[in-house]
Amino acid sequence: MSFATKLVQLDTWLQQQRPAIAAVLNPPAPESEIASIEETMDHRLPQKLRQLYLWHNGESPEQKNHLFTSASWPESQEYGPSEWAKNARWLPITEAWRERNSVMDAVNIGDDPMTSNWQPSCLPIARTNGAVVGVELRNGEVFLYEFQQFYTDPWGQHLASGCEAWLAPLLSKLG
Asked: Is the C or the N end of the chain the one with fewer CB within 10 Å?
C-alpha cells in the first residue's frame, strides 16, 4: 500500500478514533506553495514529506491536540515522540520555512552557539518548547534536535530513515 493511501486511511482513523486531532489538521498545502519553497531553498522536498504536506499542511497553532503527541502513538514504539512531544505542533510548510530561516539567521550571525551546528538542508517540521523535529532534505532522514544538545550532538537524535518510517507506529494502528 502506498504512503499516500496510508495517509488517506489515517484521516479516516483520526476522524473516528482521535477527532480532536483530526480537527486541528489544516487543509492540504497548495502545490504552488510547496514548489515556491522548494525553489527558494534549492532543495526538493523528499517525496514522502511532500506527500505529508499535500495530505495536510500542518496544524492550527491555537489548539492543544496534536498529531505528533505522545497520546497519538502506542506506548512502546521506536521512532515516535516521547515526553518532549506533549505539545509538539506540526508546522505548516511556510511556517517550517520561516523556522528554518530563523535558525539559519542565528547560525549566520553567531547569535546562539547552540544552533551553530544546524544543517542548512534540514527543515523543521514540528516544534515544541526546547526541541524540533527536522527532516534532512538531502536524504529524508528524520532527526530530533533538543536545543541543549546542539553543543554535543550537531545532528541531533536520529529518529527514522524517513517520514513513513517515523510515522510507522501511528500508521500501524490502521491494521
From this structure: C
Query: How many structural domains is the chain composed of?
Result: 1
CA distance 66 to 168: 17
Burial class (CB in 10 A: 0-12, 13-18, 19+), 45: buried
Which residues contact residue 19 at a Cβ distance below 8 angstroms, ignoring those fewer than 6 apart? none
Reported as half-sphere exposure (CB side, CA atoms, 13 A), residue 8 has a value of 5
Q: What is the CATH classification number for the domain harbouring 106?
A: 3.40.1580.10
Residue with cell 473516528: 16
Task: State pLDDT tens for residues 44-88.
Answer: 999 999 999 999 999 998 777 777 764 454 444 444 445 555 567
Residues 156/143, Cβ–Cβ less than 8 Å? yes
pLDDT tens-digit map of 104-114: 776 665 555 44
How many helices (H) and strands (E) are present in the chain, helices listed first?
6, 5
Amino acid at site 146? E
Residues of the domain holding 7 = 3-174
CA distance 88 to 159: 15
